[in-house]
Inverse folding.
């Protein structure tokens, strides 16, 4: 039974804490957050201890593993603290917004022989895994093109945007990870373009884009397209297409129910999409935690590594560079 | 080249005349209708002769085949007139509203060795034929249940209803034919129920139902359900399901385009259905005429026979009897 | 916090016990089953007490409510024992296979002012509830026809069939409940037909059907069709269609993932259906327990009553009668 | 009644000739092709005159309009010949493979005040037009992203590829036209990448790509992605997505029938796509000819102009340049 502390009691920390508490493989020991009331509320609901200091939580003898759901700039120090103490780590993305610091962290984790898993939750969605299995089984032959659609229901607040690192590092980073995972090869070239179509004044103020397209190529010539937008009126749009020499796999969105409405003006109408990632990927978050706990228990390799996090960040940096310079950027 | 006269220049006669005129296997010689202006208009548009007297059209030496699209009570006399003169006949359903007269007509056609095809157009719809081929190829194994949905966009006018023979003989008769054709066996028992839910006063006045359900069984135990309604706000609803020991076939509706709309309140919305049978079965009418012309040319058996028309009428009579008496009726 | 004992540690008891244990509204106190090892296993896994005697479990002071998941012939005595002791009851369907005993039980529960909910789980499926809400909101106007498809992946073993009460009372009973609930009116007439198409020798041996169709009518003329089969190669098939004057609602099946495959021989292929009711209705079982616990806590009317169970059984009896006699049976 | 000569009796000429012959607005006078037997066959079947010399066909007094379906390098001279003689022209794409010659032709047509329509048939597909109407009606608000999928069932023969001008000018050119038409603004920047994944030796031999991605941006920031491949095992894949501030429009593929198969290993299977453009766009070719005839008759502006053809070619050139240099290319 893995004894777990969750660091951070915000939106994402709550998800991880609930999953740890419900897991048959784990016991939730503590939740730590400098905002004491957040930790207290969550700990009260889940029946564990509340703490203020994440570092103290890492240091507890009755803690085998930590989940890091704190602000991005604390990811690296907490990860290294935990790795240094021999604790297993499930760390939210991104490792860091700065590639040099991410590289240094990856190197240090390796030196410490740390057991760190990066939380790219989409890899654990049941439909995503079914796609991966179908690819591995050779169902679609050699991969030629991957097309990823990734649109949020609405933009985050300005305060968030100011520290997000920009749309490529904050939002598209998930898609960069999916691209690498579905392509089965590393992209070697990135072309990107960015626009301000949802909220031009806000995007100008925070020096960011809200609508982007990315196109990438691997050494063998496999291609990937990603489109992202910070707002879609019909909900959180997450679609994946993998096209190969022997067929194609499509992965559609989820909706709250399966009913279809037929009316005078339209037929076969389905419900709007699940509103956002916490609902859409609820099962993925659960399975991600299980995969983490299982790997730690078994002493098996981590299913997603800090190197994966570093690589996705590198692609995000290349995309930003390409969008700003209008050049294809070699990775 | 089959030389054809079309009898009747109404809604259905126009369809047959246009198909005959466009067919590579046929030449449209004449259109005959006692309403001279209807015949003249149609003949003018299609470049053939207009006549007032259908019997005279049958008698022409330059006519090899006739399509009967006149009022129901003229079907039998015109069919026998044409069969007696050795002309091939494509006759609209039903043969007659009275089973005894239909039986007599079937017997007389046989005596005359007449070449008569009954116009159950749905058998020629490309999707229907694909279902039949899949069944014949054994794709779904032994048939167990057939489910037929058949709803009109709106009820016909009172004048039509008064002479229609009732919903079972006028509307459901197409479904009885499809049921026989898809089941691959003759129904031996019919249970039906009828309601007045669309327009109760009108239905009471014409002593008819507007909403019915029928359930039938063959000797080996195969089952069929049919539901009909005279009105559906979303258009002309024609669905077929054949369930067997090794799988299932579904045949969905047609729409004018393939676009899907995603909006704030609904996603994946499709267009309303094609409004009614002339649009929905346009291709079926074309292919039906080709099948007729091909069979006549080849001297091959007619793809649909007067006996098929008689049998569908018999099932309609049984259904009406069952709906009125509340008993299962043996066919 | 509702203190709950689950009676019966078989397939269905396990579901209820797990839901009670995970519910924020309840605490699972005990599991009781004369097969001691089954109770012990389940109790061990869920951290509650194991008992051999269901009656003793009912009698515990620390038990406020019981869930009855024992064999059918014990439903009535356990329900009455619990009602007599003032315990709330969630009882699996059917109340009993005999309508007279069911009637007597309903009357006795009323006399005792017992708090009994009948476990028609499908009413709590999220998509089913969404249909009900849409109907109540007037989205489809006046209901005209309900079409229910209900096919199991494969037949149960002979031992089960011998005591099941027959397909109408064992399997179709769920559909009779859904029919009543979706029609919004009581059926007054039942017509049914039964066949032996899946396993004729077995069905003959147990004097049962494996393939049935039912058609019902309410006093105002609303119609309902149900088709059932004990086997479908493509999985557990549960579809609902409600057709009204202003539109139609369809409720499709669930599958494990949302992926679609495109291959040379077929496109847009989806996965087989969830295999059976425990998977298909997992969420419905959870929400059913929550609805029970919520109603007990609030002292509110039970969402499904013993009278609902009695009425579904009555429709099953009428259907059997109709299938055997070939008559429409008045309810 | 427009009197029409069709120049070229190959694959595409046959389509145009059949549509002209069947059009209520036109009469097919002649088919001209230096391969006399092709012209004779086609003319025989459609009941018009066969000619060897396209220029002579243009010169006939009884010809008002010509359809140019000859090899690409004859498009410009025939178009100018016809324009010079005051004949209306429907010219197959592309105008020419060389942008300078295309520009000169456009200028000359303008000087001659020629009535020339370029045959971008996809604009006339019923579903495409329905998308355009929905956009114009404001259904999806301001356009943000357009995603176009365009895959052929299999590559053309080497002989064709050697003179095709390359995948961007031969195949993607249709998508460039659709992009302009759906975006509602001119692209100002093009980024493209090309691979050889279908047949590497062949593509190397003809110095071409078989798998490409293109990404474009308009001045206001609207974005468009195009993916093309010369081979898709599941058929001719033509999908369009237009995403806007108020919703999204999707346009799916066509299949020969609407049946869906349910089997043990997969459910809801649909048929493979219509195999190639002649089948997929049959209705679009018909409506294109009608639109041409209607515009000529009415003296209205041509629905697609030589300038449209020139602009699509320019985008193709930019894409090739980008794919070869790895730079974003300004249009």
């Amino acid at each position: 039974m893995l004894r777990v502390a969750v660091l951070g009691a915000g939106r994402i920390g709550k998800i991880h804490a609930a999953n740890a508490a419900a897991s048959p493989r784990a016991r939730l020991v503590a939740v730590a957050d400098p905002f004491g009331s957040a930790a207290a509320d969550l700990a009260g609901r889940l029946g564990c201890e509340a703490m203020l200091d994440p570092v103290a939580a890492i240091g507890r003898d009755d803690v085998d593993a930590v989940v890091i759901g704190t602000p991005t700039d604390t990811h690296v120090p907490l990860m290294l603290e935990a790795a240094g103490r021999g604790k297993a780590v499930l760390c939210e993305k991104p490792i860091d917004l700065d590639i040099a610091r991410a590289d240094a962290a990856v190197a240090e984790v390796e030196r410490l022989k740390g057991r760190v898993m990066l939380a790219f939750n989409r890899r654990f969605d049941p439909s995503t895994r079914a796609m991966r299995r179908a690819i591995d089984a050779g169902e679609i032959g050699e991969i030629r093109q991957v097309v990823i659609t990734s649109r949020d229901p609405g933009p985050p607040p300005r305060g968030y945007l100011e520290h997000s690192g920009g749309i490529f590092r904050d939002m598209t980073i998930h898609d960069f990870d999916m691209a690498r995972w579905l392509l089965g090869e590393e992209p070697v070239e990135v072309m990107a373009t960015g626009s301000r179509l949802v909220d031009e004044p806000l995007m100008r103020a925070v020096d960011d884009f809200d609508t982007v397209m990315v196109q990438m190529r691997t050494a063998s010539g496999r291609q990937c397209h990603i489109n992202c937008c910070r707002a879609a009126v019909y909900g959180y749009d997450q679609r994946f297409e993998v096209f190969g020499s022997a067929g194609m796999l499509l992965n559609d969105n989820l909706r709250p129910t399966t009913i279809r409405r037929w009316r005078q003006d339209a037929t076969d109408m389905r419900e709007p999409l699940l509103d956002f990632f916490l609902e859409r990927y609820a099962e993925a978050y659960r399975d991600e935690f299980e995969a983490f706990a299982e790997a730690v228990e078994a002493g098996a390799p981590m299913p997603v590594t800090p190197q994966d996090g570093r690589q996705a960040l590198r692609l995000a940096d290349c995309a930003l560079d390409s969008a700003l310079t209008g050049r294809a950027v070699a990775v």
The interface with chain D takes residues 233-235, 253, 255, 261-273 of chain C (CB under 8 Å). Chain C has a mean pLDDT of 95. Chain C has two domains: 2-119, 123-284+311-330. The longest strand of chain C covers residues 143-151.
